[in-house]
């Protein structure tokens, strides 16, 4: 299992230590991962209870909701990169997400973990194991709607692909690639386990490129 969970640590930072601001960047977020001593055991990291308490529903594996009814999904687009972070075993990129009628900031986290060995280039189906749950994914996409509130709505992919052209082999938050035809379903997040919300909402991200290899 994963050794660190940058998205959850950064979320804790924004909601607790960083004051929950929705400014143009997160200059203080890197310290939250670097100082973390949380380690994962079987079934997920045990040091993220403060985030898990925000998540309703029981822990379970993510069922594939499929892409049916995708026409009703809210279209979203990837905005500018706001921050990046890394820690032993994982790295995280933070982007603005546009297209939702939200009162607060919406964010997309793009994360890489060493759970499946060193990062490699290639195209990865996000509907298949180990990518189909946040607790096991090596190539992860996690969306927070109304991020700076105490109960942000979370979304996780049930279909779509991630193509990595420049892999983050050093896990230093330097990578390049493409997201294509992502359908993300509303989920609960208990520790690191994502569980689909019955009759929950969905988002569609048709295509997005990222490049964190340049300053």
What labels describe this entry?
single chain; 215 residues; mainly beta; ten-stranded mixed beta sheet; 12 strands; 10% helix; 40% strand; disordered N terminus
Structural account:
With 215 residues, the protein is mainly β. The chain has one domain (6-34, 47-53, 65-211). The chain has helices at residues 6-17, 30-34, 49-52, and strands at residues 40-41, 44-45, 74-75, 77-87, 90-98, 107-113, 122-125, 139-145, 153-166, 176-190, 193-196, 202-211. The strands form 2 sheets. Strands 3, 4, 5, 6, 7, 8, 9, 10, 11 and 12 form a 10-stranded mixed beta sheet that branches. Strands 1-2 form a two-stranded antiparallel ribbon. Strand 10 (176-190) and strand 11 (193-196) form a beta hairpin.
Can you give the mean pLDDT?
76
**Inertia-based shape:** globular
How widely separated are the two ends?
Answer: 31 Å
The main sheet comes to:
10 strands, mixed
Structural class determined from secondary elements = mainly beta
Number of helices: 3
Number of strands: 12
Tally of distinct domains: 1
| Share of helical residues | under 10%
Order of helices and strands: HHEEHEEEEEEEEEE
Task: Provide the low-confidence segments as ranges.
Answer: 1-6, 11-70
Radius of gyration: 15 Å
Q: How is this fold's topology laid out?
A:
Blueprint: H1 6-17, H2 30-34, E1 40-41, E2 44-45, H3 49-52, E3 74-75, E4 77-87, E5 90-98, E6 107-113, E7 122-125, E8 139-145, E9 153-166, E10 176-190, E11 193-196, E12 202-211
Parallel strand pairs: 3-12
Antiparallel strand pairs: 1-2, 4-5, 5-6, 6-8, 7-9, 8-9, 9-10, 10-11, 10-12
């Amino acid at each position: 299992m994963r050794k660190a969970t940058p998205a959850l640590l950064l979320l804790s930072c924004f909601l607790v230590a960083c004051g929950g601001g929705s400014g143009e960047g997160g200059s203080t977020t890197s310290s939250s991962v670097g100082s973390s001593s949380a380690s994962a055991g079987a079934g997920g990291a045990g040091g993220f209870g403060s985030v898990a308490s925000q998540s309703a529903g029981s822990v379970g594996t993510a069922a594939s909701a499929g892409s049916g009814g995708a026409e009703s999904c809210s279209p979203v687009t990837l905005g500018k990169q706001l921050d990046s972070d890394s820690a032993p075993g994982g790295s995280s990129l933070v982007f603005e997400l546009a297209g939702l009628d939200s009162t607060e900031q919406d964010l997309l986290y793009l994360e890489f973990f060493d759970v499946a060995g060193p990062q490699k280039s290639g195209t990865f189906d996000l509907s298949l194991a180990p990518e189909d749950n946040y607790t096991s994914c090596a190539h992860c996409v996690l969306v927070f709607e109304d991020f700076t509130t105490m109960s942000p709505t979370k979304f996780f992919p049930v279909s779509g692909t991630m193509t990595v052209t420049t892999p983050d082999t050093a896990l230093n938050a330097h990578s390049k690639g493409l997201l294509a035809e992502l359908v993300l379903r509303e989920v609960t997040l208990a520790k690191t386990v994502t569980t689909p919300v019955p009759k929950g909402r969905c988002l569609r991200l048709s295509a997005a490129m990222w490049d964190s290899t340049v300053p």
